[in-house]
């Protein structure tokens, strides 16, 4: 992870500071990335060859077209000055009969130009399509591979990677790998082929003129390289200035009450003006570099034409017989020089995109190489029938090697069919216990057993199908209510979905929403309250009919009366199954067969609620502390539903 | 089956059926003269610069047309040997002619460089200045807009006004006018030259031009339609990707990994197919211009050849003509490009101006009637008399609110979410203007008080403890920018939290992170208290944080809070029993009305609602608090 704080800039800074570039760190892996990228390209070699063939065809046809229009010029010139200008040679010696009248010969030549042009259009069309197909194949392969990998990485991996960056890996970074294959490898081969073809023709026609014309290209390339170097820092400065500007804007929108509440509108307007003029300056500095260097490319192009004119004109005057060239050949040279400029441009720009695509590629490879921590063992245990016994044997757990233990030597057993509640302060380790049962993390030491088998011996998929979880944060997808409920059992019938929704006491708001079960949830659809979301996630969890149900504070936002109704339904639905509940209300504790008090990573007391209340001063205190804490965290809803009633 | 957008996928085949709302809004809008005039008005603030750019554009167009002409004349003159040629009439040898032509070409090339360079800087300066002005205007206007605007507009949407919309406008400003001028002048110039050389050939080209333009236009439409469809699947793709990552825990808990992968592959394939449609259109369109100029060259060769045979024109003329076709057709491409840029800018400009045109709520009193609040040391005296209020006209959220807060009193507002506590606070701070009834501040009608004046004497602590990115010092000083470091320390000392801040890694210079993320909740709360105290408020508004406090002990926060409330009139949306008990006056609010008010003791003794409420509070707190 990059250090966040240092790179963020504050609303209060007036000076712009450049942050150190972090590309240097990747240089060591460069050669390695190159190898892998070429390896990846090799996988698509036939697609590349096909694209190459079409493209060379396009360039060859372009050359032919120029040759025929040049020929037409020569024919005309010969016609106008038969004495001083020699009769032109038709390419490959395929000439019309010599007794043809002028207009016939001309029509043939210009007909050839038209025919070649149309052919070339077709070839260009095919080139575009072939290379697009290739690009898309690479993109789809990469994206699905990345996505597939993302689906399988463990929770701990997601704990340390921010989601914005991950999205970019599948979209932007996958794009830069594609760019490498398409832009660097393929473009280099194509441009080289085209250059070879054109230069071959030019050298054969007149070597010295070719050399004279070519002189300009290295100068142009040098300017472009110089440009890309000097623009890089400016682009970064501009991006940073813009980031600061946007950050200030955003903070002043989010913190509008603070700005207004303290009457500090003028202060923020001044600050924004500063950011704004910084952004203006940064932008203008780019423009100045652009305008100083980029017009040179075109100007040098004009100079190239000047060389062609001066030397070529001289050669035309001499005439092909005396070691010069025909006017038509000069015309071909003139047209080819323009084509060459395009190819040189392409080579330079693809070369300059190498660093960028390497950075992207390194991020893609990093993701593809990330080890899957929770992998299925050989001979994975996947029984057909599961009883639902849970056992912790001296389990200790820490989330990261350098962080403190969240669970320390925890041992307990939950028998099949038992309903156990856990209580304790936030951060005490309750959720960790849940995470270990479904093997979303691995214990640092000790064993977690389900039905007497170590969870690490289980097939993770079978284990997770046996365990249904309602997470503290009720995440729902922006899809229909029905599809959300049947998330774990995609082919569940509508009746089953409806039953689950009814059991979670969600039927009422589902049926009153616009499209019933087909209502789409989310920003653009139905916005649900916290309690409603929790009820749907409970419905989602009971639909698979799993032998073990874990409810992580699943009814915190549900009002007390509804909770009682849901609990009654759960008792019926989960009859004979194992239930673990993280509790925040006394009623839940009372209902449980047994209560575990989890504090500072240990189980400090267990027993029935009544026993504990009677016997343990500590439990009374711990339970009430927990309840008080939860009240405050969820005061909005609890207040609304319980306080003023 | 619920269909997903304009695709053939059903909701069951994707994770995210509705892409999260797009803050950018529609991408293009039809051309609109009124909008264009408004944008042009902004440009005309820099009229000299604008006209310079236009003149440079004309010069550049003429140069663009003249250079090929010189090339043709040079080569033609050097090789041709008939008595009427310019060269013969001037008595110059072919070699001399070549030298003259090439020198002219080099001179023009250098001139082109100079003109181009000046033009680029001028164009960018104009565009960037207009953009800078607009941005500042947007920001300043945002400060004027009332809370009603912020309540109904999402952050992302406001941000987009200052970013993507402005960018669309910038592109149009820096490109459209100058490049269109170049394009048009260049076409006219080329046409005149061509007609001058040979009118028959010239007319041939002229007839072809509308056809080329039409084909070009049609392809653009085709392309932009299919491109929009690509955008649709792309946002479907990213939306699904984003939710897949956000919901990864649910996916793994319900073992949907394989199914999700298949689903994503399906979307990728759909996206690929749409890309291929674009590629097909592009594959036909892009060579089109090339084909046209090649076809015209073929036609020119044939027609021109026959005219040369007749002696109506020379080979040089034909050469010049062939070069001018390029000059003539190239601008058509540019014009097509510009069209799209203009439509995008229209959409951006429409939204930017809509924001600028949004009238702020009428919170400022009439200049003549405005009354300044007294500047005294004691707290503010606040009275509500039969106040009603609603955010929307027909939906009252407060009715018949009457109470008084004496200077220095702490008033606790109690009631469930949506009962109207926050609305009362919004009225006291004059974030909104009430309906009927009267609100008096120090005996002055709030309608006559300028919000700025009131806010100068107000301290505010929000529930979410919002901090700006920057140091602790910067944040505390936000309430009074002119305060020096010692004054900031003094405020913290008075709150009794100086040690807490000094214990931070870099003390007062510790960076708080984005929205205070580098600090614990308790630390953030204390900094917000200090910021409020920094304002030396006579009126304090505090929305008590609901979450429990961590490393900074609860007692610590309570102690600071007490000191903060001391000696000023305070309104607290209370979430803690201790705060409620200590209040001088409690307003029990339900459904937009004050159902009971009094001190804690009075209400416990005489109230109907409060005792029940208090009992619930106590029960929930189970002996604590």
List keywords for this structure.
heterodimer, A: 645 residues, alpha/beta, ABC transporter transmembrane region fold, Rossmann fold, 2 domains, 6-stranded mixed sheet, 10 strands, 9% strand, disordered N terminus, disordered C terminus, B: 625 residues, 4 domains, 4-stranded antiparallel sheet, 20 helices, 62% helix, 8% strand
Write up this protein.
Chain A is elongated and about 125 Å long. In chain A, the strands form two sheets. In chain A, strands 6-7-8-3-9-10 form a six-stranded mixed beta sheet, sandwiched between helices. Chain A is α/β, with parallel strands linked by helices. Chain A contains 23 helices and ten strands. Chain A has two domains: 225 residues, ABC transporter transmembrane region fold (Up-down Bundle), CATH 1.20.1560; 254 residues, P-loop containing nucleotide triphosphate hydrolases (Rossmann fold, 3-Layer(aba) Sandwich), CATH 3.40.50.300. Chain B has 625 residues and is α/β, with parallel strands linked by helices. Chain B folds into four domains: 189 residues, ABC transporter type 1, transmembrane domain (ABC transporter transmembrane region fold, Up-down Bundle); 114 residues; 126 residues, Rossmann fold, CATH 3.40.50; 68 residues, no CATH class. Chain B is 62% helix and 8% strand. Chain B contains 20 helices and ten strands. In chain B, strands 6-7-8-3-9-10 form a six-stranded mixed beta sheet, sandwiched between helices. In chain B, strand 7, helix 17 and strand 8 form a beta-alpha-beta unit. In chain B, helix 2 packs parallel to helix 6, helix 6 packs antiparallel against helix 7 and helix 14 packs across helix 16. Chain B starts with 32 loop residues before the first helix and ends with a helix. Chains A and B meet through helix 3, helix 4, helix 6, helix 8 and helix 9 of A and helix 2, helix 4, helix 6, helix 7 and helix 8 of B.
């Amino acid at each position: 992870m990059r250090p966040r704080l240092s790179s963020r800039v504050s609303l209060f800074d007036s000076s712009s500071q450049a942050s150190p570039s972090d590309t240097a760190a990747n240089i060591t892996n460069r050669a390695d990335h190159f190898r892998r990228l070429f390896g990846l390209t090799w996988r698509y070699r036939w697609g590349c060859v096909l694209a190459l063939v079409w493209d060379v065809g396009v360039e060859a046809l372009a050359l032919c077209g120029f040759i025929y229009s040049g020929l037409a010029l020569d024919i005309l010139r010969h016609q106008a000055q038969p004495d001083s200008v020699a009769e032109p040679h038709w390419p490959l010696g395929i000439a019309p009969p010599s007794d043809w009248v002028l207009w016939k010969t001309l029509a043939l030549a210009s007909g050839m130009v038209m025919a070649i042009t149309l052919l070339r259009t077709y070839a260009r069309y095919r080139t575009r399509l072939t290379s697009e197909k290739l690009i898309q194949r690479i993109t789809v392969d990469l994206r699905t591979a990345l996505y597939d990998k993302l689906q399988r990485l463990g929770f701990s991996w997601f704990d340390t990677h921010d989601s914005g960056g991950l999205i970019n890996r599948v979209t932007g970074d996958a794009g830069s790998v594609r760019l490498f294959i398409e832009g660097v490898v393929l473009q280099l081969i194509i441009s080289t082929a085209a250059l070879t073809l054109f230069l071959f023709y030019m050298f054969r026609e007149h070597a010295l003129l070719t050399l004279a014309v070519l002189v300009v290209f290295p100068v142009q390339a040098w300017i472009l390289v110089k440009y890309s170097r000097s623009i890089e820092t400016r682009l970064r400065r501009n991006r940073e200035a813009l980031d600061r500007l946007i950050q200030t804007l955003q903070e002043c929108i989010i913190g509008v009450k603070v700005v207004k509440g303290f009457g500090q509108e003028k202060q923020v307007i001044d600050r924004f003006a500063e950011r704004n003029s910084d952004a203006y300056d940064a932008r203008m500095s780019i423009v100045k570099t652009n305008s100083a260097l980029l017009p040179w490319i075109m100007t040098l192009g004009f100079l190239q034409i000047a060389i062609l004119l001066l030397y070529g004109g001289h050669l035309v005057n001499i005439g092909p017989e005396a070691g010069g060239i025909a006017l038509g050949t000069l015309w071909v040279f003139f047209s080819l020089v323009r084509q060459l400029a395009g190819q040189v441009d392409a080579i330079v720009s693809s070369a300059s995109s190498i660093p960028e695509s390497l950075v992207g590629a390194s991020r893609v490879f990093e993701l593809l190489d990330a080890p899957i921590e929770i992998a299925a063992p050989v001979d994975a245990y996947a029984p057909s029938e599961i009883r639902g016994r849970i056992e912790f044997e001296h389990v200790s757990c820490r989330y990261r090697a350098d962080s403190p233990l969240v669970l320390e030597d925890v041992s307990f057993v939950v028998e099949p069919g038992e309903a156990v509640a856990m209580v304790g302060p936030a951060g005490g380790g309750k959720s960790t216990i849940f995470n270990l049962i479904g093997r979303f993390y691995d214990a640092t030491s000790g064993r977690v057993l389900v039905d007497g088998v170590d969870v690490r011996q289980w097939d993770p998929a079978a284990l997770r199908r046996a365990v249904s979880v309602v997470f503290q944060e009720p995440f729902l997808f922006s899809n229909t209510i029905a599809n959300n409920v049947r998330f774990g059992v995609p082919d569940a019938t509508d009746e089953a979905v409806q039953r689950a929704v009814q059991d979670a006491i969600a039927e009422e708001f589902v049926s009153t929403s616009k499209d019933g079960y087909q209502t789409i949830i989310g920003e653009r659809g139905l916005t649900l309250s916290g309690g409603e979301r929790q009820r749907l996630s409970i419905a989602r969890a009971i639909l698979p009919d799993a032998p073990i149900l874990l409810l992580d504070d699943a009814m915190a936002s549900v009002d007390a009366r509804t909770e009682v109704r849901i609990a009654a339904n759960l008792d019926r639905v989960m009859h004979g199954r194992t239930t673990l509940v993280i509790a925040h209300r006394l009623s839940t504790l009372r209902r449980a067969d047994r209560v575990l008090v989890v504090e500072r990573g240990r189980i400090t007391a267990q027993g029935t609620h009544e026993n504990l209340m009677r016997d343990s001063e500590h439990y009374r205190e711990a339970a009430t502390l927990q309840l008080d804490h939860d009240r405050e965290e969820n005061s909005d809803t609890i207040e609304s539903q319980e306080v003023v009633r | 089956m619920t269909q997903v957008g304009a695709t053939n996928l059903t909701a069951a085949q994707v994770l995210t059926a509705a892409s999260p709302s797009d803050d950018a809004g529609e991408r293009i809008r039809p051309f609109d003269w009124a909008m264009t005039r408004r944008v042009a008005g902004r440009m005309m603030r820099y009229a000299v610069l604008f006209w310079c750019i236009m003149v440079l554009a004309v010069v550049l167009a003429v140069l663009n047309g003249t250079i090929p002409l010189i090339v043709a004349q040079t080569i033609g003159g050097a090789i041709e040997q008939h008595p009427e040629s310019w060269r013969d009439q001037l008595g110059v040898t072919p070699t001399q002619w070549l030298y003259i032509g090439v020198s002219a070409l080099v001179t023009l090339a250098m001139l082109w460089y100079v003109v181009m360079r000046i033009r680029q800087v001028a164009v960018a300066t104009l565009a960037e200045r207009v953009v800078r002005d607009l941005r500042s205007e947007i920001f300043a206007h945002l400060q004027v807009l009332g809370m009603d605007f912020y309540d109904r507009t999402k952050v992302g949407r406001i941000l987009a006004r200052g970013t993507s919309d402005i960018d669309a406008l910038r592109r149009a400003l820096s490109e459209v006018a100058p490049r269109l001028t170049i394009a048009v002048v260049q076409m006219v110039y080329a046409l005149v030259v061509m007609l001058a050389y040979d009118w028959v050939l010239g007319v041939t080209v002229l007839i072809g031009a509308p056809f080329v333009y039409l084909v070009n236009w049609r392809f653009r439409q085709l392309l932009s339609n299919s491109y929009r469809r690509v955008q649709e699947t792309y946002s479907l793709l990213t939306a699904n990707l984003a939710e897949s990552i956000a919901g990864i825990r649910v996916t793994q808990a319900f073992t949907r990994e394989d199914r999700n992968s298949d689903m994503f592959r399906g979307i990728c394939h759909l996206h690929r197919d749409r890309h291929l449609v674009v590629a097909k259109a592009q594959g036909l369109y892009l060579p089109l211009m090339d084909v046209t100029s090649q076809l015209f060259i073929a036609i020119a060769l044939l027609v021109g050849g026959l005219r040369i045979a007749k002696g109506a024109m020379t080979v040089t003329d034909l050469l010049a003509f062939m070069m001018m076709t390029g000059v003539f057709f190239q601008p058509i491409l540019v014009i097509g490009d510009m069209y799209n840029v203009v439509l995008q800018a229209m959409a951006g400009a429409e939204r930017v101006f809509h924001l600028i045109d949004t009238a702020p709520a009428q919170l400022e009193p009439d200049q003549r009637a405005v009354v300044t609040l007294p500047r005294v040391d004691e707290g503010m005296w606040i009275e509500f008399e039969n106040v009603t209020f609603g955010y929307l006209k027909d939906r009252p959220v407060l009715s018949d609110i009457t109470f008084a807060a004496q200077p220095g009193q702490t008033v606790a507002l109690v009631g469930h979410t949506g009962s109207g506590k926050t609305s009362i606070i919004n009225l006291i701070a004059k974030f909104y203007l009430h309906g009927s009834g009267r609100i008096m501040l120090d005996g002055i009608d709030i309608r006559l008080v300028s919000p700025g004046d009131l806010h100068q004497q107000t301290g505010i602590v929000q529930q979410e403890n919002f901090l700006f990115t920057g140091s602790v010092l910067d944040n505390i000083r936000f309430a009074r920018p002119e305060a020096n470091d010692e004054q900031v320390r003094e405020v913290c000392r008075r709150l009794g939290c100086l040690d807490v801040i000094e214990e931070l890694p870099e003390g007062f210079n510790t960076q708080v992170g984005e929205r205070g993320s580098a600090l614990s909740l308790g630390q953030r709360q204390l900094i917000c208290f200090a910021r409020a105290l920094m304002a030396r408020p006579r009126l304090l508004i505090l929305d008590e944080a609901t979450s429990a406090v961590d490393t900074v002990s609860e007692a610590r926060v309570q102690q600071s809070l007490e000191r903060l409330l001391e000696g000023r009139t305070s309104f607290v949306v209370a979430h803690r029993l201790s705060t409620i008990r200590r209040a001088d006056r409690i307003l029990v609010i339900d459904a937009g009305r004050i159902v009971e008010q009094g001190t804690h003791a009075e209400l416990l003794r005489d109230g109907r609602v409060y005792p029940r409420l208090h009992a619930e509070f106590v029960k929930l707190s189970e002996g604590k608090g």
